[in-house]
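Subgroup meeting minutes
Present: P.N., E.W., G.H.
Scribe: E.W.

1. P.N. recapped why we're keeping a running log of single-chain structure predictions: easier to compare across weeks, and new members can see raw inputs and outputs side by side.
2. G.H. added today's entry (525 aa).
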Amino acid sequence: MAFTGKIAEVPIGLDGLTGTKNMAKVGPTHLIVAENVTYEAGTLGKEGGSSKYNSSAITSAPTVLGGHDWHPTASQQRLIVVTSNGKMLRDTGDGSFGTTLKTGLTVSSITPVFVGGGAEVAANNRKLFCYTGSNQVQVLSGDGTTTSDLATPPSDWGSIFPTFGLIHENRHWGGGNSNDPHRLYFTAPGNHEVFTGSDTGSISVYSGEGERITGAVSFKGVMVVWKYPSGIYIIDTSNADEANWSVDKHSSKIGGVSPLGHTPIDDDVMFIDQGGSLHLVSAIGEFANIGSRNLSDVADLTPLIRDEINLGELQRTQCTYYIAKREVHFTLSSSGTAYDRRLVVDLNRIDLPRFRLSTKDTNRSIWLRQDSNGVDRPMTGDASGFAWYLDQASRAKDGAGYNGKFQTPHLDFGWLDPSLGTKNKNGKFIELVVEPKGNWDLSVDVLWDDVTIDTLSFNMGVAGSSLGSFVLNTDKLAGGNLVNKRKRMVGSGRRLSLVGRNSGNGQDFSVSKFYCGFTEGSDRG
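Output recorded in log:
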């Protein structure tokens, strides 16, 4: 017999995570929970797993404060890390971190900033500079086995040290030292180690505004500079005469919070401000007229950030752009645990950034490392002496499962017919459209008016169900790229929400949409 009720189609996660508290204005294409999921390939699935880079913890199991994928030559690849026991270590690929580049660093609460430079002329080594804010800038020349203090720093860095650096217009720049926190220092183009003498100098950036410069990035021929708690400035160094360089204010309301709280993306720069909101620095006509817009407002993320994120830890936020997946990853701390969140911004939709939260990893630091195919993949450093590969094909973390979870808004189906918003709905069935992933289940909790009424199990294999639970005219024994999985639903209420989850080792899911079958009940008005 044909179904005579109403059927509502709900695309799963089409618009990503929202943090709004007002469920009445949340559409069916949003999610109110998006934990350890991904939007890639046009469906909602579980994000990739994590595996250890080093099989044994670094000696003394320190926190990995920062890491860098270092290529001293075109044929060499090293992993450089700074740890909480004051060491800078080098690994050549076996995970032993067998070379100690530096000991005795002061590292309390620092965010290491690595800057690749050198090779000013063909005969010069590539050089890696490491800023810590508590020590003189460290210099690693080529594939060396020790670092040295920056040989010729500005006089201001004699005992109070900078917190960040960058290469801009082939000059090495640094700043963030507390004895002159509004000043940027630069080398001559021909030597990235020498900050004094001919063709070197410094620029004061609106010294009467803000507390300090927190970071800067070279972008489209100019330098974008952030201050805490507010202030964004543009330095134009395009003129050959340094006397004609200019510093212009872009914003006095928005600022930066962390030396690594920004990253260039495809044709823009994304950054996090002191309140945890995300922004883009965008070109409008001439680049001299830069515009800034709040990405967090797109999904009304502010309530979620305020409730779940420790804003006091934002100064240690690090971020990176995973260009292969067009995702920006920000490391954050929840209100209860340090470094246990990544806020991920998916940029695959041109019209809309989509957000999700990752909770399965400890993310004290994050960086990119080139894989054997030449693709830069994200890595994190934890609080126990390990570096981790992220986005692994296996849906496991070091051989153990993790929870992938999503929740739809509390839907009254008013988008089908406004009158349905005031009526009870009697549940009849839920049908998922999925890409088969394996012979395991996706559990779906059915909530009517915020009360869990039932939990349905949908097998994620090619077969709709394992033998013994096959239902004629409901499950498929085999299928193509997409299959439909239908289960009877009970309960009734004005608003329906579905919570999907699985957590087994290697278990994945890929949900395209669902259909909800129901009949109309009474108007409870």
